[in-house]
Structure formats: C-alpha cells, structure tokens
Amino acid sequence: MEFNPILIVPELYQLMLVLALFCQSLGDGQEPAPAERWLPFFAGFGVFVSIASFGAQGMLFADAYKVDALSQFFKLAIAGGFYVTVLNASRQPSLMERKRPDYFMFLALSAWGLMLLSSAVELITIYLALEISSYSLYAVIPLRNNDRGAAEAGIKYILFGAVATAMALYGFSYILASQHTSYIAQLAKMNWTWDGAPMAVVGLSMFMGGMFFKLALFPFHFWCPDVYEGASNETAGFAATLPKLGAVVVLIRLAALLKPGLEITTLLAVLGALSMTYGNLCALAQKDVKRILGFSSVAHAGYIMLGLVSGTAMGLSAAAFYALAYVAMNLLCFWVVSRVASDGRNLQLDDLNGLYKRSPALAFALGVGAFALVGLPPTMGFMGKFFLIASAWDHGYNWLVITLVLNSAIAIFYYLSLVRHAYTHEAAEDAPVPDNSSFSVCGAGILAAVVLVLGLVPSKVFEFAVVAGKQLLP
User: Residues of the chain with pLDDT > 70: what percent?
Assistant: First the structure.
C-alpha cells in the first residue's frame, strides 16, 4: 500500500517536537529560550493539528497501523493532555534548570509513543509503541531534586514495568503459537473460547496484563500510589492521565474480539469489580492527596471494564468517553495540587484547610474535580458513568453495574473530604502559599469549565466516540 504521510500528521508533528527538544537538550542549559517558554505554544498548536486530522482514515505499514475514528479520537485527547501537562510543568519548582530540556523531551516522547499506540493494530507494533511510551516515564519519574522518594518511585515503576512487559511478551508467544497471526483484524475471526483455544485464551489474558499495568488495574496496581507519591506533582499528573489513554485504546481494540460470557470477558469483569472495590477502600485510609488520587485511579480502571465487557459498540464508545473524562478530571485535580503546593511539596489533606480563603478559584476548581470524580451531575464524570451503566445493563453483567453504583457511594466519602478540608477547616500557620497568579487561576478555570461543559452537553464528543465504536463492532 502506498505510504501517505497526510494520515500521520499528528505523529509527525509530535516527533518534530521531540527532535527539537533533543537538540536543545544537547546544549549547556543557557539557551536564550528555555523549553518551558516556547514549548507550550507549539504543544497547543499540536491540538489544532490533531483536530485538523480528525477525519483521516487509512492503513499503513503493511496494515499494522490503522488510522480510524478511534485512533484520531485518542490522539486528540493525548495532544490536549500533553498541552495541559506542559503548561502545568512549565513552573515546576522541584526540577533543576539544566534538566528541563531532557524532562520535556521525555514527556513529548512518551506522548508520541501513546499516539503510535492509538493506531497500532498488530501485537508486536502495540508492544513497541507501549515500550516507547513507558521507557520515557522511567526517566522522568525520579527527576525531583535528588529526592529519595522519587528515586524509589522510579525503581518500583521500572521493576513492575519489566514484569508486565515480560508477561505481555510471553502471552504474545502463546497467541502466535495457537492462532498463527498477530493482526487484530485476523484474530477477530478466531475462536476465543477455553474449550476451543485454551492456549490463545491464556496468551491474550497475559498480553492484556501489559495494558492492565498501564491502567493500574488490580492486581497490576501496586506501583501506582507509590509512584504518584514519589514523583513530583507535575510528573504524577502526566503519569496519572495520558498512559491510561494508551492502555484503554488497546483494550478497546482487543475487547472487540470478545463477547459476553467468554472466559476472558468474565475475567475482565471480575478484575474490574475487584479493582474498583479495592481502590476505593484503600483510598478511604489515605491522608496524602496524591495517594488518594492514586488509589482512585485503581478504582476508575475498574469502572472502565464495564464498557469493555458489554460486547456492544455502545460499550466500547462509553469506555472511550470515560477515558477522556478521567483524563480531564485528573488533569484538573493535579493542576490544583501543583498550584497549591507551589513549593513542590506533597500535599496532605490538612494542607487544603482553608483553601477557600487563600485561593477561592483553586478551591472551586478542586470542588469541581472532586464532584466529577464521584460522578455527580452536572459534571463529565456523571455522564461518563451514565454511558457506562446504560451500555452494560442487561448484557450479562448486571452484577458489575451494581458493584459500580455501590463503589461510587463509597467514593463519595474520600472525594468530598477534599472539599470538606478546603471549605470547612481553618488553615494552619505553616500551610503552603498557593499560586494565585492569573496563569494559575485561568488554567484552573478553563479545566473546570471543560469538565462542566462536557457534562452538560456531552453529545458532540460522545458522537465521535460512537462512530469509533461502530467501526469496531457493527
């Protein structure tokens, strides 16, 4: 098939940013235009590049790379998330000046790998794209002013990542040995029952384990709260959001192979129920805000399983929409955490005391983020859960829907405790001084508006997700 570069304009643009940052990282750190000054403008332009490329469709690289509605939906989300992350990290206090070009280069490289992951439809291509996005994070997580906790977080992420990678490769060998192909389009025609292809079932389950690691799904979640706590606030904001998009898009493509009632589908449902329950119960006992958000991500990984096990195009669309909602909600919360902890410290719940007096705008944005993560109207989180429940009900996993509802009730306590500390407690004398600059307030306001507006009028975005879902399942 003839190579058409127009199909991969977002990836090419992101790669140019990586190369530009690489060239700057070769300097002595005394450039007249540091990366944090020019990169936000070019990262923002990357969002418009992704929007302009939204309708592109085609196959590339021996049909291992597919540009379709699903991939373009996620590339736009990744470009937007990368832009917000760059803005958030542009005022990072816990990063040495000479390491900033390298830091932004690795973030851009990870985002590029996630874009590749969005279009990969062949298992080895998926694996390579996953590693490109992961290796970059191995380098940036320990970057926190020689902090021992950050070094420990980096080591844990590498070790767990190595185990997940080995499991995925081992599973790939089982799939290839039993089904004799690594293309998802051909695998969709194969038998995935335990009676008919037990080796393939084991292999696909193990290959999905690599995605479960990125998604922080139980029991592949052990790295998550420790990495969030050890990494800088801005780095944790990236690790908590964008890699989840890459994992979800691959799981959506693989879930299209499955039907309700299959052994793998039931395994996904059971892991989803365990993940949401374990994550919410552990979050109840936390005092560190980032650890709360870490265990929260374990719970939300379980919520996404609801759409994947439904066996319908609407379920896959709901999973895609909820992944976008999760990224928007968490970027908002981590923006507030980074701006409140203007000195780079880890926030405890008590550090939020009296925030409504010290920074009314950040307190309001934190409230919007917390309400959205709970799933209360009129936020994007509410609509995301509504779409998940509507798509999965009466498709064989009603017990999982009930589990989600019960877990959402549990989650109310620890999410709203963030708001309770911000609005009903008085600040201590040593409370951190929030960043109340126009940059901080405008960023929080725009992100809060996105979460609210897409909760009030989600139809346009969800329609894009529906188109993507229907291309995978008629």
Answer: 97
CA–CA separation, 385 and 400 (whole Å): 13
Both tokens assigned to 61: 């690289």
Instruction: Let me know how many helices (H) and strands (E) the chain has, helices first.
Output: 20, 2
Q: How high is the pLDDT of residue 274?
A: 92
**Separation of alpha carbons 321 and 82, rounded Å:** 18
The DSSP-derived string for 122-155 is BHHHHHHHHHHHHHHHHHHTT-STT-HHHHHHHH
d(CA 111, CA 140): 13
The label of the residue with tokens 């999982």 reads: 400
Half-sphere exposure of 202 toward its Cβ, with a 13 Å CA cutoff?
9
Q: Which pair of structure tokens corresponds to residue 216?
A: 């922080």
3-state secondary structure of 430: coil
Q: Could you report the per-residue pLDDT of 382-439, keeping only the tens digit for each?
A: 888 888 888 888 777 888 889 998 998 888 888 888 888 888 877 777 677 787 888 8
Closest to 260 measured CA to CA, from 159, 128, 401: 401
What angle is formed at CA 282 by the lines to CA 277 and CA 285, rounded to 5 degrees?
140
Q: How many CB atoms lie within 10 A of CB 28?
A: 6
Domain of residue 98, residue span: 5-472
Question: DSSP character for 69?
Answer: H
Q: Is the preceding omega at residue 34 within 30 degrees of 0, hence cis?
A: no
* Biggest distance spanned by C-alpha atoms of the chain: 67
Average pLDDT, the chain: 84
Q: Which of 71-80, 172-181, 291-300, 423-432 is the least confident region?
A: 423-432
DSSP 8-state class, residue 347: P
C-alpha 288/C-alpha 188 separation (Å) is 44
**Number of structural domains, the chain?**
1
Q: Is the pLDDT of residue 31 over 60?
A: no
Whole-angstrom Cα distance, residue 240 to residue 231?
11
Which tokens in the block code for residue 278?
A: 């374990």
Q: Where are the alpha helices (DSSP H) in 26-179?
A: 35-52, 69-89, 100-119, 123-140, 148-179
Amino acid code (one letter) for 70: L
Mean pLDDT computed over 293-302: 89
Q: How far apart are CA 348 and CA 351, in angstroms?
A: 5
Which residue from 87, 93, 86 is spatially nearest to 341, judged by alpha carbons?
Answer: 93
pLDDT for position 64: 85
User: Per-residue pLDDT tens for 442-456?
Assistant: 988 999 999 999 888
CA 74 to CA 13: how far, in whole Å?
A: 16
